[in-house]
Structures are given as structure tokens and as C-alpha cells.
Structure prediction request, 442 residues.
Amino acid sequence: MATVLPFQGILYNPEMISDTGAVTTPPYDVISPDEQSAFYERHPNNIVRLILNQATDADSAEDNPHTRSAAFFRQWQEEGILKKDDQPALYVKAITYTHAGETITRYGVIARVGIEPFEKRIVLPHEKTFSKVRSERLQLLKATHCNYCPIFSLYPDEGEIFATLEGAVHNASPIVDFVDEQNHRHQLWRVTDPAIHHQITEALQPKRLFIADGHHRYETSLNFKKHLQATDPSFDDQHPANYVMMYLCSMSDPGLIILPAHRLLKAVSADALQQAIDASRTYFEIAEYPFTPADRKEVEQRFLADLSDGASRQAIGVYAHRAPVYYILSLKPGVMDDLFGDELDIALRSLDVTVLTRLIFMKVLGFDQQRLDNEKLIGYASTAEKAIDAINTDNYDVAFILNPTRIEQVQDIAQKGLVMPRKSTYFFPKVRSGLVMNGLKD
Prediction:
């Protein structure tokens, strides 16, 4: 059963930081180098110095991004910039944003959740992770002993928990209220009523929790707990590292949106891609959208519209560097069953991202697991426009444009104990880093 508890969060002190928007950021893994620098410049106490401290040529075992993060964390607490709440709370979070011309609000609650190994089927993943990222995040956690960012998780709900959270803050003033650089409004309420705590804890106890965003951080928390069990004689069942900070959102929340995670590849030559397109004709019906400089934008819009209209079928868009043509690859019936029916569950075979990874990347292009695990050669974009721009600006060689995974597919795969390929989903909007932190020292 899920253990969801209130905790004494560490927050920016409003007496010293009047604009929380100036010191918070998106999660570390979606911050580009340019954005990292911009957040550094925005405010001297911006959370980027903790979650993604800048590396230098002089870094050493004693002085590196992780040790500097820990030093800033201690300093900001000593100076009163960060302040720990004096009583346990649940932190209700609302984000209001515009999507497809509609204004939407999504609610969630930030709480402390008991860490459970995946095999216990209480907290469930749906994606694979990168080993290098897990290692890097573990070094940060060892240095800082703090969850700076909540893991984004989902729970099945018929609306009762959602209604309780919304009702708990309906007539209350938020302790945080700002609009970020994407024009998203963030509001945070501190709920200290033990009756509400009990109500939420009891309602979530029988639920399975599905990790939406933060698989690396959750696996890192599991490894950090094992590290302390092996090295700290005082570690026991009451130690704070038995828990991890999570943002919990209802699967039925109308503000929950999944965007696709389009793939961007480096080190794919024009000849190799053309050979792959030709080889793909065995498995796909291929529609071509050639363009000229004069009609490029018009053709691009038609290509994206046709790809989106075909979301009910398994279809993938392709666009390559210096190639004046877009492609839509539509899977022929029965291909995935014939090739992978004895190896992959039907839930996985039905995913566009599985078609891309197993059929196109591995079978057609010949990528091995090492190539797929190399984050220097593969990138991601949450919008087709960003993916196409990454090709036009020479940052990548080829983009594979996907339709979004559906929430029902995420739930089905997680409940079956299966995992999707890495970055199969992009839950939107992301959960802001720096609103609340969770200390892990005993």
C-alpha cells in the first residue's frame, strides 16, 4: 500500500525572496545550457545552482557542481533564504496554462511518499532510464541529502481526492503565486489541517502510484536508501531517506496533458537515412511531402496535420538535414505481431515509440543498446516545431516526429509491469523545481 504523508517542507523565505518566480525553474533535465545560464543571471539564489550547478574546467573531487550545490544549500539555510516549516503540511499545487487555445488548471499535492522497490507493485515505472544520469543524480543526492524537485506521479481517481484537494484551498490565499517565463501561473497552498492529512493519506493508501516524470530521480532515491543502509549504522525505518518527495496528480484531472517526445539523432548520414527509408518500405506505407523554399511552410503544416489526423494508426514522421522532403511512415498491418509477437506484449507493440525504437532504430538502422543509451547522440523535443528547428539549425541530422502516447497506454503498461522505451512521454506542464524541498538528514 502507498504511504503518503505530510512533511516539513523547506521553502524560500518570502521575507527575503519576494518573487518566487525569479528563483524557481523547470526540472533539471529539460533545462538547456542557454537556459541554465539565463537562470543563473536571473537571481543569485535561483534553484538552478542547486539542481544543475554549472561545471568548470577546474572541477575536482572536492569542488564540483555537486559539492557547490551542497554548499549553496547550507549557506542559504544559514542566511534564512531557505526556511524549514515548523509543522508538517501537504502542499497543494495548481498550475494554470493555455493549451490549444483553452485555459486549463491542473491540481496536485506535494507529499512525502514511502520508497518501494518496483517489484512490490506499489510505485510503478513506465519508462527505461539512462545509467549515466542515475549515477550523476546519485552523486548529487549523496552530497546534498535533499530532494530539490518532486517526482511527478499519477494515481487513479474517480474524482474524490481531486475534489478534496480543490476544496481544501478553495477559500484560502496561496503562499506562492506567480507567472513563469512560459506564461504559466503557479499557485501553492500549505495545508496543515490534520483532518485533511488523514483524509488524503487514507484515500491514497490503496492506490498504485504511476511515475509520470522523474524515473531517474526515483531510482536514484532507491539507490541512495541502499547506500545509507550499507554505510550508516544509525539508518532505520524512521530515517527520512525512506521517503521521497512527490507531486501527486489524479489521472482524471482535466489539466493533465501528454505531449510526444520526438526523437532527434546525430551521426546519421544522408546516405544511411536514405537506405533506411528504402528498407522501411517492407514494413511501412510511405507518403512523401517534397517542398521548395517557396512552399516549405505550407507543406510542413500539411505534413503535420496529416500525421496528427492519423493518430489512430501507427505512424511516424521523418525529416532530415538538407533533405527537401518530409515523410510519413504508416505501419502495415500485422508487422509488429509478426516480428515481435513472441517477444513483446501487445501493449508495447501498439506504441508508436516501440515501433520507432525496435523496428526503425534497431532493426532498420542497426542501432545497438549502447547507441540507444548514448545521450550525446540522441535528443528530444516536446513539439514538432522544435524538432524541425533542431534539424534546420544543424544541431541534429534527423528528426522522428511522433503522436503522443495516451494516458490509458501508460496505465496499462505500468500495471502489467512493463516499461516503455526511454522518453516515451512528455507530461505537460512540468512540475516547477524549487517550490518545496524535502530534507533527508536524520
Summary: The first strand starts at residue 4 and ends at 5. The chain is about 35% helix and 25% strand. The CA atoms of residues 92 and 109 lie 4 Å apart.
